[in-house]
Amino acid sequence: MKDIIWYTPTRQADGSYTVTAKASDHENADGKYEAQVFYVDAQGQNKFVKKAFINYTATKPANAVAADLTITKSEKDGTFTITAKNLQGFDGYKEVKIPFWSHANGMKDIIWYTPTRQADGSYTVTAKASDHENADGKYEAQVFYVDAKGQNKFVKKAFIDYTASKPSADLIITKSEKDGTFTITAKNLQGFDGYKEVKIPFWSHANGMKDIIWYTPTRQADGSYTVTAKASDHENADGKYEAQVFYVDAQGQNKFVKKAFIDYENQSRPTGTLLIQNNNKDTGTFDVIIKDVYSPKGVQTVQVPTWSDKDGQDDIRWYEATRQANGDYKVSVKASDHKNSTGKYHVHLYYIQNDGSRIGIGTTTTDVEVRNAMTKTQASIKNVNATNGTYTVAVDQAPQGRQIKNIRVAAWSKAHQENLYWYSATPTGMHTEITVSANNHGNEAGNYTTHVYVDYKDGGVEGFNLGQTALSPRNQKVNPQTTYYSQRDPRWAGKWYGVSNMDQSGCVPTSLAMAFTDILGKEVLPTTIADYLYYNTNSFNKIAVAGTDADGLVAATKNWGLTSQMLTGKDAIAATLVSGKHVLAAVEESIFINAPYTHEIVLQGYDNGKTYVRDPFNAANNGWHSIDYIFSVKSTDPIDAKLGSPFFSVFA
């Protein structure tokens, strides 16, 4: 309807109305034409009556004006090439004009281009989408010639659909919670043509953007942009942080490109959480659980001074907490050790740091009652020595209670009681102690379940479930297996998968191959695992940084019919190694790998706090290494620790 003309017809003698229209007033278009008839009522409103159609093909004279008009595009470069060729009937013309515009902007961006004549007689011009507001959608070109009288004469039109290439970048945040810093990198920048500069705003979600800082990153030799932010400039907030990357365009406007997130826990200050559990009102006992134990100076000892509100601190006792398999610390408190006082108890938490200094961390209180001390037998666990693999079961006969004939203790650590051992003792007084030792249970590390059965002289039996106690005896040696593969083996070192090859990024497939071959008793090559990871998952060499993420390790283990289990603490790792299982460990800057990369190694075997390492990149590192050292250089890269920890046991 762009060529619509509202005609006023002439009334004829017979009452009809007639008008003659010229095709030239309608761009000489071929095809269907439409006419409608309206009458104008007394209020001046147009009222539709009827429509009619007719097909029309213009008769072209021998010297009719004609041309072929084509448009090609490069969405990557944001350009259009418009060509008019096979020109006919242009005799006596002065010049050729090509108007071009986007439909999205309704001709507001129209530009009348003067194309350049080519050797073959065609005319060509290149238009930039940026001169048309980078609009998406349909674009239109028309070709006109200017006749001898200076009039523009329409010849042909053409159309093309276009989608502007959007600016893109990879945005990565890495962190050092130890140093309290973040490194933010924008790389693989595309579509930033004509930009003035790059900006990276960064803030903590905890502060609701109140701490936002707009950083100007530094351009690197590879074209990426990097900036280091300090947590102290963002109020040292814990939790989620967000970075975004913008470029500033030629008009000085900020244009958003990408966002990224990272979780952060401030490790520049000591942390610890006090919890009271198992408060038994009958026996006057409770457990103190300490979670999130950390100090930047290191924690040598966890102390829990405890006293009752009665008579001040006359019954204060400084407890030394015992580390549990899950990394928590635990103290068991009995009212009998505090003059059997009842009421409010005060519990404080202190750390003895590695430099010998003591620092207070927190406090809490709890209420204690002793309802059964005089009439009921009491059973408890004390003197836990996790590294020696021992603890004591204490049984106290109530002064006014039943007389004890014999005490039996059942203890085990395996799920199906395979290492169950029974202890027995005859009391010689009101208080009896029985020592439980891991030596009687296969020297296994783990959580020991303890059940106590008291046989009374009146023939009755009473049972006590004392829960679980973590032991990690470290005085036994477990020899490792010997399968070794190198990711640098000439047979496969140069084999490429996606963004890298086995030599540079094959540590996880090679480490898995060593473990699988040991466990399954048959050869499993590194390339067999690499093929599976690359062609069946998105975890290997398909991300911006070469390597395998934790999801890939878990998926490959499952595919070979084995089981993987994430390990979060040193004691859990030691216990797993003592049991003879393999542990795959991702480490960062250390004797095994240079910064900023991370590396996968295989751990197996145990000997007095050390484990045997098989390094797929450097066989010179193969040998016994301290578990404490390996744990201290654990990878904090989100790729390795995305499931919570970079340590995984693998077993059948």
Provide an overview of this structure.
The structure is a single chain. The strands form twelve sheets. Strands 36, 39, 40, 41, 42, 43 and 44 form a seven-stranded antiparallel sheet that branches. Helix 2 (507-520) packs across helix 3. The chain has six helices and 44 strands. The two termini are 75 Å apart. The protein is mainly beta and 652 residues long.
In terms of topology, how is this protein built?
Layout: E1 10-11, E2 17-18, E3 31-40, E4 46-56, E5 66-74, E6 79-88, E7 95-102, E8 111-113, E9 116-117, E10 123-128, E11 137-146, E12 152-162, E13 168-176, E14 181-190, E15 197-204, E16 213-215, E17 218-219, E18 225-230, E19 239-248, E20 254-264, E21 271-280, E22 285-294, E23 299-308, E24 317-320, E25 322-323, E26 329-334, E27 343-353, E28 358-368, E29 378-385, E30 390-396, E31 404-412, E32 421-425, E33 431-437, E34 446-456, E35 461-471, E36 477-478, E37 496-497, E38 500-501, H1 502-505, H2 507-520, H3 526-536, H4 550-559, E39 563-567, H5 570-578, E40 582-587, E41 599-607, E42 610-614, E43 623-626, H6 627-632, E44 647-651
Antiparallel strand pairs: 1-2, 3-4, 5-6, 6-10, 7-8, 7-11, 9-10, 11-12, 13-14, 14-18, 15-16, 15-19, 17-18, 19-20, 21-22, 22-26, 23-24, 23-27, 25-26, 27-28, 29-30, 30-33, 31-32, 31-34, 34-35, 36-41, 37-38, 39-44, 40-41, 40-44, 41-42, 42-43
Helix pairs in contact: 2-3
